[in-house]
Amino acid sequence: MTANGRFQAWPWHAGTALAALAVLAPILALVGQAGQGSGAHWGHLLQFVLPGVLAQTLGLLIGVGLLAAALGVGAAWLVTAYDFPGRRALSWALLLPLAVPTYIVAYAYLDILHPLGPVQEAVRALLGYSSPREFRLPDLRSLPGAIVLLAFVLYPYVYLTTRSMFASQAAHLMEAARLLGHGPWSAFLRVALPLARPAIAVGLCLVLLETLNDIGASEFLGVQTLTVAIYTTWVTRSDLAGAAQIALVSLALVTLLIAVERRGRRRLRYTGNRRAAPIRRHVLHGPAACLATLLGLAPVLIGFAAPAAYLLALVLERLGTGQGPSPALLRAVGQTLTVSALATLFALAIGLVVAWSRRILPRVHAWQGALPRLATLGYAVPGTVLAIGLLFPLMAIERGLSALRAATGMDPAGLVLLGTPAALALAYVIRFLTIPVGTLEAGLDRIPPSLDQAARLLGENVHGMLRRVHLPLLRPALAASALLIFVDAMKELPATLLLRPLNFDTLATWLYAEAARGTYEEGAIAALCIVVAGLLPVILLARLMDRPTA
Amino acid sequence: MLELDRISLSYPTDHGRRTVLRELSLTLEAGQIACLLGASGCGKTTVLRAIAGFEPLEGGSIRLDGRLLSGDGTRVEPEHRRVGMMFQDYALFPHLDVAANVGFGLRRLDAPERARRVRALLDLVGLSGQETRRPHELSGGQQQRVALARALAPEPDLLLLDEPFSNLDVDARERLAFELRDLLKAAGRTALVVTHNQAEAFAVADRIGILQEGRLAQWDTPYGMHHHPATPEIAAFIHREALLARRAQANLRGAPPAAA
Q1: Which Gene3D superfamilies match (chain B) (predicted)?
Q2: Which residues, numbered 308 to 337 in chain A, qualify as contacts with chain B under a Cβ-Cβ cut-off of 8 Å?
Q3: Chain B contact set for A6 (CB, 8 A)
């Protein structure tokens, strides 16, 4: 077995194993750390902290879940089953709220709906009141307020999965229901909705994971969620063990969500891959058509157009006074781009190792098939939980490096990873690794195996095949995942807040600090930058969605 | 000369392993064209994959012009076997134009030499002037010729062809079967073709092998195969198409249909 130039499989196996380990390390460290905490700690936690926090978190999850599901499924059915003016434009515009991170929608609406803000002023003027003391709308800073705002930016996950399910559903099943005596409404409830249930479950899981991950919106709106509790326990009370214990509870919730989603996805297989004629759209006229257009437009207006326009107005106003962005903000822009680019580069490289190994290596043991799945679990771990989990292995590595430097006669002081942009980039890579792995695996699946064999028989070894055949064919997949990772890294807030170095700001943390101070002048610039960047992947998604094979 | 000596091979399945090739032996003289004929699932394509080096043998050996390729603990990597293959789906690289596809295996030549060789091969297969076209712009027959030119380019000691005509329409098949034989003979290549269509096999081959359940049931010239089938099953297999044609003619003449 020593033919010269023989392909060595172990570096690729090792690369995949290392990626899986990097993702698992924070989770395992967290479990270990929480286990070490004193029992008294748990007692205190269970008695005083968790009941309130869990009640708020579950309330938020249930509320956001219900409202986002209703909005997403309703919008998907509207553009699938009916035809009305603006339907085509709406079918992709309904994705736009994806561009607005939860903390930005909260940030914008706090100002828009402020008792002294434009909306309440207008309502008062309309009703003839002169002062906020005489009349004001219910306070946005409440659990219901948070539910509504989060649902209006997160519903596109449900919309996306459900719409493609409705579109691929056999139209004749609906027609059969109609012929069996069901009206359109009853056919929707008894045929279309049950068939789409797995797709709804998948989309809803993403909504709930994002809700659990959110820190900015919950905090701005005064909702004490698990994520907020982790943050304040660590940052305000400097109680790392307590934060780790709350993080563990959050992790348990995530595990539950993923288990439910996996069940939903399993059933997706049986209903999703049927190629059938699309549902014939019912053409609406007159007032009904008007109503449909308005219904479809409402989520786009509330979730995207209103906050984006408001931010734009604030920015224009500021630029109109001749004041550009401050140097500190410009520095934050540079730091955001640098750390996002770094994370993108590493995530792409590691994603390529994981996805390509799966293609190329013979699977001898079951665990070799499980490793890539483990390596993509990071997306489910809330950012704050990930940050705390990462802390322990990073501290261990720092201690090791410091000892190494001392042993070799160098200055043992100084940190290499902790408190540097490298730790931040690492957190992004772990959290977003599922993007390049998933996209590249899908791209590789589209390359027939005969191309691999042809390349080999024409004299290329395995690495030559990667370089001359796979990489050129994967270029669109590489570009798409680079864009998605980059923008997600740019928007990331919770992990960034906890892991960023001193005096290091990304656009997201800059905005967070501005909002905490209640200053809106420069924060709006940062927010608008993030929203505009967030539009790029939405455009990409919309284009993929319109492709008939997607 | 290709020598397969009692090769055995099995695939792992959910319930243990499924034997695909059982002690299969055959010898193909240099410059000859052989066809392996058999129903789907009889292991034809597996023979090609084993010769190309994509399937490890469990027993036996494969030699090409005296070189040991597989067996006795040796497994030469596919890229070092000097074996070319034309794939059922042609496997043309979609990101490369015709010239780059044909020149893919000529990395070791310098650019002018490679261009000369590509031009000569495209001449041979009748595709001169199509160098800059992409695979998806070509018809099925043209793609097949590009695939053939590409496989011939590194001057392999053996050419493997997997169902070379299955992606073509019926009219093109017959014409191209004769054309392929002429091309292979002109290039002086030893070739092993796998097909389930006996008309193709009889049109192309110097030697025909019948594969049944992983064994070589008969290995003979087309004449010998047709006139002296080794077993009643082979006779039935060989003459089934003739039988079908006769029945179809009878139906067209208005004979009463057979009971369903």
Answers
A1: P-loop containing nucleotide triphosphate hydrolases
A2: none
A3: 77
